[in-house]
Design goal:
10 helices; binds zinc ion; Rossmann fold; seven-stranded mixed sheet; 319 residues
């Protein structure tokens, strides 16, 4: 489907997204058993979301195929998700990204003594790489979005591979610090990606991971879900994902919720004890709420207006 048509379809409530998808097993525990947690996403579009019955990891069902996701991230994503119409990242994005990069860099301070080899997995417009490079570290980025990868190279002079992570090859132990900030939730195989990052990590290296907390507070359960987030993590699922990748939370860092800095486990990878009824417990968290009531409340008009104002303000500021 042409890019613009798909983008328009992706804005219309009560219709499906422009994708076919396929059934998948849970990428954390491999189970096929699932419980439906939502039939709608935050735009009130039809999108089925399930929780794995065994481990409670949440995913889109059916899952977009590799080709569908690759095409989405190569171009359509920034337009669809952030209304980024120009080649340059929007001002509000750059501001937020700079703030996030500074906070992440400060938080990881114990890992940054001396000169470190740093990989930002999903480096976006490159603000974190720029900060680390300025502080004297050797930096490398991976970013599938063409315009953001190009922007970070030109604007900050940093090295970024413009491709998907499956295409990237590094020697084992190549990096002292790897960060994946709000990236894993976008991947079809987030736990496989964590395993790969664990291989790239030096023995005393650290991996910072932050994802949205699927159990965080929202007025309506469907407001948690969005097409771009094909997996949604609970804090427990993220710790388990680390465990199967041979990692454990590093106590030197502030870890909480779904923001965790991992180190390598001396004992290597292990299969977690999934416990009883994790999936049912997670599914019970998402009480069904009525999209129709939300529509009638007019709340969506306020949300749409806020989004429009942000974008319009950004465009006017540039003109
Ligand atoms: Zn599972």
């Amino acid at each position: 489907m042409p890019k613009l048509l798909a983008t328009i379809q992706n804005q219309i409530p009560l219709t499906r997204y422009a994708y076919r998808g396929e059934a998948t097993d849970c990428n954390l525990c491999g189970s096929q058993h699932k419980l439906t947690v939502s039939q709608t996403d935050r735009r009130l579009k039809t999108l089925k979301t399930v929780a794995c019955e065994q481990c409670g990891l949440i995913r889109t069902d059916p899952m977009p195929t590799d080709a569908e996701l690759d095409a989405y991230y190569a171009g359509e994503y920034r337009l669809d998700y952030q209304f980024a119409f120009s080649k340059k990242p929007p001002r509000f994005h750059l501001k937020r990204s700079q703030r996030d990069a500074e906070a992440r860099f400060a938080m990881l301070e114990p890992a940054f003594s001396g000169t470190k080899r740093v990989l930002d997995f999903g480096s976006g417009s490159g603000e974190f790489l720029a900060l680390a490079a300025k502080a004297g570290h050797k930096v490398q980025g991976i970013e599938p979005g063409e315009s953001f990868a190009a922007f970070s190279r030109v604007e900050y002079g940093v090295s970024v591979q413009n491709t998907v992570w499956q295409q990237v090859e590094f020697q084992p132990g190549s990096f002292d610090v790897i960060t994946a900030n709000h990236v894993l939730e976008h991947l079809r195989e987030p736990v496989s990606a964590m395993k790969r990052m664990a291989e790239w990590l030096a023995e005393d290296g650290v991996l910072f991971v932050s994802v949205p907390n699927a159990l965080g507070k929202r007025r309506h359960s469907f407001q948690h879900f969005h097409f771009a987030h094909v997996y949604n993590f609970t804090p427990q699922a993220l710790i388990w994902a680390g465990l199967v990748a041979g990692l454990e939370p590093d106590p030197r860092f502030m870890n909480g919720g779904t923001t965790i800095t991992f180190r390598k486990r001396k004992e290597g990878a292990a299969i977690p004890h999934w416990g009883e009824g994790q999936g049912r417990w997670v599914a019970a968290h998402f009480e069904p709420s009525s999209p129709l009531r939300f529509l009638l409340s007019g709340r969506w008009i306020v949300d749409a207006f806020r989004r429009f104002r942000k974008v319009a303000g950004d465009s006017l500021a540039r003109a």
